[in-house]
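The pair is quoted verbatim underneath.

:::
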Amino acid sequence: MKEQKEKIESPKKEQKPKRKSVSKTSTLLKKTKKAKESKSESISKKKSITKEHKDIASKKEPKLSSRTTVCKKKKKDSVKKESVPNEHEQQDKKRKKKKKKLSLWVVFLCFILDLGAIGCLVLAYGPNEEFKNFLITTAMSTMNHKYLARMIYDEDTIQQVLKENTIIEVNEETNTDEIVIGNYETHNYESEYEEQILKKDEGNNLYKIIHFQEDGCTFYIAVIYEPSRIHLVNSQYLGRRGETIREIAKKNDAILAMNASGFEDPGGMGNGARPTGVVIKDGKIVWKGKNTHWISGLIGFNKEHKLVLTKENATTAIKNGMVDAISFGPFLIVNGKPIQGKSSQKHPRSVIAQRKDGIVLFVIIDGNGNKYGYRGGATYTKVVEVLQRYNVYTAANLDGGASSILIENNKIVNHPVAYSSTGERDHPNAWIVK
């Protein structure tokens, strides 16, 4: 038994081969590590060699290696890619600059508008009464722009200003006995104004046109030596629509023509169809329209070709010799006596006048404004001042503003301010010379 135990236990004690296997594995691991290290060293050596070769190759001509060309292409592509965002950045910068400029302009315009608003308020409500008087009297004397005054001032202020800027007409009928047609000399002149009137243009004994600038407006004065050549002619379509003064002049073979009657003009867009007041043609009443506040009476020529201003009714005026006449006003000069009072309103004007020697004046006054805004023009006071220089005996205001126009040989003499491209508008009738 002891021997068997010894036999059995003996192999357990002898485990030397197992130790040998462990040592073998360790040695194998060591060998693999050494192999890996050798491989890595060889690879690093190869890489260093390739780098050296590349450096040598880069020093040589680049055409020999395809890798260098590829690298260069890659570099170029990268540069292009880098330039693209730079362009976008530049565009963004430009946009930002534009936005800054726009914002600056907006601020500047707002500043200007604020200044303008403050200036208007100062003018409207400040100590300067001239602007207030001018605005109220000018706006309230129009047919379609009274709202401009009412937007700023109350009704009491408007009425007060109108009272303080009221003109008073001469309360007389025209004394036609003082008018002697043709009683003038063409050689002896009392003043430069008389010379302007009496000195005829060479080869033209019928008329001449004087024009000059004064007080911010332009005066056109047609001097007509033969009043018997003056007639009132109506639109061919009276009551339905008007015609331009140039059309009326052409149809009637007129040498000169100017506007005559006022007319119904709703919103400033009337077609000249319906005259205001009365129209007398060849001694007959051809039209009876609405009377308006700017009508002072009848303005026309009698059988003796003398300009008559009368407040008589049409029937009585015809009995007293009226041949052609229209209704308007105010009467500016009657029997050599001018209107009284103060006038601040400025407008383009049309005036018909006559001297004691029978010479008739068609007067058109342009403003220094434009058709779309402030038109400018002359006050009644300025008109009368100019007429008195030329020794006018009778004078009456006709429809003005956008209606003021003078035609000579089918051409526009002045600068009318109606909304059409030529500044013309349709009228119911015209004073012509033929």
Q: What stands out?
A: The two ends are 174 Å apart (CA to CA). Residues 4 and 347 are 152 Å apart (CA to CA). The first strand starts at residue 167 and ends at 168. The first helix runs from residue 2 to 13.
